[in-house]
Amino acid sequence: MRRRIGLFAGFFLGLTLPLVAPELANAGGCPDGGEQVEHEVASGQTVSGIALKYGVSQRAIERANPKLDINKIRVGQTLKICLPGKDSGGSKSSSSSKRSSSSGRSCGGGKTITNHEVEAGDTLSGIASKYDVSVDTILSRNAKLKKDPNSLRVGQELLICADNRRSKASKTCGYRTPLHTHEVLPGEHLGEIAGRYGVRRKDLIKLNSALRSNANLLRVGQKIRVCPEIAPHEMVELEVTVQSGDTLSAIAKKYGLTTNELLGYQRGKLASANDLKVGQKLIVYKQGGMLPGYGAYDDDTGDLPHGVQMPAGKYYEVKTPSRAWGTGNTVRLIQSAISSYRRGWRSSPKVHVGDISKKGGGKLPPHRSHQHGHDVDIGYVLKGDKADEVRFVNANAKNLDLARTWSLVDAFLDTDEVKYIFMDRSIQELLYDYAKKKGISQDTLDELFQYPRRRGHGIIRHSSGHVNHFHVRFRN
Ligand SMILES: [Zn+2]
Predict the structure, then answer these.
(1) CA of 422 relative to ligand 1 center, distance in Å
(2) Is 308-474 the same fold as 11-168?
(3) What is 180-290's CATH topology?
(4) Which terminus of the chain is more solvent-facing, meaning fewer CB atoms within 10 Å of its CB: N or C?
């Protein structure tokens, strides 16, 4: 299973969501298949500032706009911008305005190749400390420079294998992720915002003292700090005119929204889906490209130097003990979640604990993750003759024990140390409907579930291959 986490670098970007600026333009015209957007120059903007904003180089803007005189841009002028491709990051520039971009290409150990453009005043040791790497690490990927370290020139591009997350992560986020600022959209509630970034409401309340007194009274435009587990995307504001035959749910689906989200954006001007009229104008906030500076980050690989083997237990069965080594914390959390689940159920089939990691960690085929003792596969609780089968069995509406499975998942979530749970969309749907009927609030459903969205959202997310078990990744 693959996991991408955003790397946020340009802190200045977190301050404002460009809600109005870019309109999606026709793709094409971009090399590398990147998405092309149009930027309308606002007062006070410079080409270099715009380049930083989108995480592209100034030269890339010049290339996309051949007639442009970069010293003579005017307010209202439209610039074509080629956004970096999906798997590539953008600018990681800090306030020092140095330019660099991540290719998103992995170079092992969770690091990615970053392209650093040498600027006046740069020294080799200065660049090394900026990326938290050694000078030798830089030289090893730049043959010319290695031959002659004095050949460093302004404008030269260096390839650097660096852990972007470590060097750019915020202290506020425990150096795990960069800090992002979310601006509240009309109708948004806290669970929905937490879900957008794959974190819990509690995390947001911890980071934003203003939420402690009024977490249910958000103001449009209110700024909320978040340490995102799901990379932030640009929000693009569109005006959509209702056509004959349109339904609210079809429009919502078209823009990757839930019907509730779309209703909320109308600020009370549309009370319900039934009031939709042909010709009516709707405001849509559509998720655009990943914010510059976020790229692929590999946090699936690694090893497990001080692993603990999952012991046998009264209420659970370990499928393959040799593949059930985790960190001490992971083993403790699995045991405590299962105990807590069983306190609510006097009788239940044993919980089926699948792979965690192998002794010492590292690759554990056929998994991509399960390398550093933070992942565990857990069987769904089933009814009927397959309930006690230790082998994972596909769950469906007929055999899934909804009440017990929901309790079990909830017990894991209650540890407050779950980073995410992978669960097939079809199972999410069953549990979502069950939880909703049980009276779980929409706010909590939006916090926890990706369903019914198709984009990455919430703690419980879709990943194929999770019809017969769910996969829990614990925080560190
Ligand atoms: Zn797994």
Answers:
(1) 8
(2) no
(3) Membrane-bound Lytic Murein Transglycosylase D; Chain A (3.10.350)
(4) C
Helix, strand, coil % (nearest 5) of the chain?
Answer: 30, 20, 50
pLDDT band, very low/low/confident/very high, at 126 (cuts 50, 70, 90) = confident
Residues 197, 291: Cα–Cα separation, whole Å: 13
Q: pTM here?
A: 0.68
Q: Between 193 and 72, name the one with better pLDDT.
A: 193
Distance 370 CA to ligand 1 centre (A): 7
How far, in Å, from the CA of 421 to the mean position of ligand 1?
9
Taking the centre of ligand 1 as the mean of its atom positions, its distance from the CA of residue 301, in whole angstroms, is 13
What per-residue confidence (pLDDT) applies to 293? Answer: 61
User: Ligand 1 center to residue 355 CA distance, Å?
Assistant: 7
Q: Tell how far the Cα of 369 is from the centroid of ligand 1, in angstroms.
A: 7
**Where does 11-168 sit in CATH, by number?**
3.10.350.10
User: Which residue ranges make up each domain of the chain?
Assistant: 11-168, 180-290, 308-474
**Residues having C-beta closer than 5 Å to ion ligand 1:** 377, 471
Q: Confidence band (pLDDT; 50, 70, 90) for 296?
A: low
Task: Please identify, in words, the CATH class of the domain defined by 308-474.
Answer: alpha beta
Ligand 1 centroid to Cα of residue 471, in Å, is 5
CB distance 280 to 223 below 8 Å: no
